[in-house]
Specification:
By secondary structure, the protein is an alpha+beta fold. 27% of the residues lie in helices and 16% in strands. The protein has 10 helices and 17 strands. The protein has a 6-stranded antiparallel beta sheet with strand order 1-2-3-4-6-5, with helices on one face. It is flat, with a radius of gyration of 26 Å.
Length: 430
C-alpha cells in the first residue's frame, strides 16, 4: 500500500507520522480517536491478504504472552482491506538508547528486563528468532518491552525454519535453519554485551572479544562469565534457555550486592568511604543550586550539565551523554537546550533549526544579557547568551558559598572541589 500521510485517517486512527519502514511493513505513530491514546500501527506493505500469515502469526504469539516486559497488541483487524496491528507506543528502541551514554545501574536494569521478557517466552515454549536491540522498546520509567514476534517459532520435538533473523545477532545454527532456545540466548548475549561495552562483537567470537577492556572495567568478572557462556558457538555449551540464563544473571547480581555490604577493614584508608561521604554532604548543600543530578563519566562524582569539567577529577564535559531534563540537546556538546534558544549557552555552539516560534518561561531564568539590543534571559552559569550568542561577562556566584575561583572569579565550593568546574583551575585550600 502507499505510504500514509500525517493527519490521514484509517479507521478510528489518525496518523501522526511514520516511525520506521521495513521490507515487509511500515510502522506509524497514530492517535486512537475513540480511546484518546497514542498507539503504534504496523501495516504490511502488501495489500494481498495471502501475504499476511506472518503478521497473523505475530499477533497470535504476542496475544499468548502476558508480561510487563513484552509489548502488548491492543488490536488487530482489517480496515479498508488493510491488515492493521495496533500496539503500545514507546519512546524509542534499545538500538537508539545504546548510542548514548548509559550508567552501569541503568544498563544492568535493562539487561535484567530483557532477560525477563525472553525467559517468559521460553517458558511458554516460544523461540523469538529475531533478538536484537531494535526489537526492544523503551517506555517511560525505563521499562523495556520485547516486540516483533513475526519470526517466532513454537518449539516442537523437531523444528525446522528458514534462516530468518538479523545477521549481526543471529546464532550459527539458526542461520542454517535450525533455531533453538539456545539461539535466542546467543543473540541476547550479544545484545547485553553491546549494552554494557558499547561494542558489538563479530565472527569468529573468540575471547577476549572486541570491547572486552571496557566491559571488564564496568562489570564484575562473574557477569562476564555469564555473557561468555551465552555467546559460545556450540549451542551445547550455552545456557539451555533464557530461564537458566536469567537465574545465573540474578545470582551474579545478588552476590555482588552481598559483597558490597561487607566493608573491608582498609576501606577508610583507601578513601572510598570518605569520598562517598563527601559527595553526600556536597549534594545536601548544593544539589538544588547547581542541579548536580548526573555522575561524572570517569569518577562518578555528582556533576551538572553546565560544568565544563568535573570538580572532583578534572574530566572534560563530565556529564556528556546524560539524560537531560531539557527538551532538546546541543549536537556539539550534547548538553541540554531549550527549543526556543538560538544558540547553545554552554559551548558557543552553532545556530539551531528553529523548533518553536513561541517563548517558553522557566523559573531558572535569573538574569539578563548585557547586550542592550538583546536583553535575553539567562540561567545561572551560562557562558553565552542563548539568544544573541554574546559571551556572558557576569560573574556567577554560588549561593551558599563565599569562595570564588582565582582564575575565572566564578563561585566555587572550595571546601569540596579539587578543580574549578567552570575553568578547570586547581582549587587550593588554605
Amino acid at each position: 500500500m502507499a505510504l500514509l500521510r500525517a493527519r490521514q485517517r484509517i479507521g478510528k486512527y489518525r496518523i501522526v507520522g511514520r516511525i520506521a519502514s521495513g521490507p515487509l511493513a511500515d510502522v506509524y505513530r497514530a492517535q486512537d480517536t475513540i480511546q484518546k491514546i497514542k498507539v503504534a500501527l504496523k501495516i504490511p506493505k502488501s495489500d494481498n491478504g495471502s501475504g499476511h500469515e506472518e503478521f497473523l502469526h505475530e499477533v497470535q504469539v504476542a496475544t499468548r504472552l502476558r508480561h510487563p516486559n513484552i509489548l502488548s497488541v491492543l488490536n488487530a483487524s482489517y480496515i479498508d482491506e488493510h491488515f492493521v496491528i495496533a500496539m503500545e507506543l514507546g519512546d524509542e528502541s534499545l538500538a537508539d538508547r545504546v548510542e548514548r551514554r548509559i550508567s552501569n545501574a541503568r544498563a544492568l536494569d535493562l539487561a535484567g528486563q530483557a532477560l525477563a521478557s525472553l525467559a517468559h517466552a521460553h517458558e511458554h515454549k516460544i523461540i523469538h528468532c529475531d533478538i536484537k536491540p531494535e526489537n526492544f522498546i523503551l517506555f517511560p520509567g525505563n521499562q523495556l518491552k520485547l516486540a516483533d514476534f513475526g519470526f517466532a517459532k513454537f518449539n516442537l520435538r523437531t523444528l525446522k525454519a528458514s534462516g530468518s533473523g538479523t545477521i549481526d545477532y543471529i546464532a550459527p545454527e539458526q542461520a542454517m535453519g535450525r533455531p533453538k532456545f539456545q539461539s535466542d540466548v546467543f543473540s541476547l548475549g550479544l545484545v547485553i554485551y553491546r549494552l554494557l561495552s558499547g561494542t558489538l562483537p563479530e565472527w569468529p567470537f573468540e575471547w577476549p572479544l572486541a570491547g572486552h577492556e571496557k566491559l571488564a572495567a564496568r562489570v564484575r568478572p562473574e557477569l562476564i562469565e555469564v555473557l561468555k557462556k551465552a555467546i559460545q558457538l556450540d549451542p551445547k555449551l550455552r545456557y539451555r534457555d533464557a530461564v537458566q540464563m536469567q537465574a545465573a544473571f540474578k545470582k551474579t547480581l545478588s552476590q555482588a550486592r552481598k559483597q558490597k555490604r561487607v566493608k573491608p577493614k582498609n576501606l577508610t584508608r583507601r578513601g572510598t568511604a570518605w569520598r562517598q561521604m563527601q559527595w553526600r554532604e556536597f549534594q545536601r548543600h548544593f544539589k538544588s543550586e547547581l542541579e548536580t543530578r548526573h555522575q561524572c563519566r570517569r569518577c562518578e562524582g555528582p556533576v551538572s550539565e553546565s560544568m565544563q569539567c568535573c570538580p572532583w577529577c578534572g574530566f572534560d564535559n563530565p556529564a556528556r551523554g546524560c539524560e537531560s531534563r531539557m527538551p532538546a540537546t546541543c549536537p556539539r556538546c550534547e548538553r541540554g537546550v531549550k527549543n526556543d534558544w538560538n544558540y547553545c549557552s554552554w559551548c558557543y555552539g552553532p545556530g539551531f533549526v528553529e523548533e518553536a516560534s513561541r517563548s517558553y518561561p522557566d523559573r531558572r531564568y535569573s538574569s539578563r544579557c548585557d547586550n542592550q539590543r538583546c536583553g535575553g534571559r539567562l540561567m545561572p552559569f551560562m557562558r553565552y547568551c542563548p539568544w544573541c550568542r554574546k559571551k556572558v561577562r557576569r560573574v556567577w556566584k554560588l549561593k551558599g558559598s563565599r569562595h570564588r575561583c582565582k582564575a575565572c572569579n566564578w563561585g566555587i565550593a572550595r571546601d569540596y572541589w579539587h578543580y574549578c568546574a567552570w575553568c578547570r583551575e586547581p582549587v587550593k585550600r588554605e
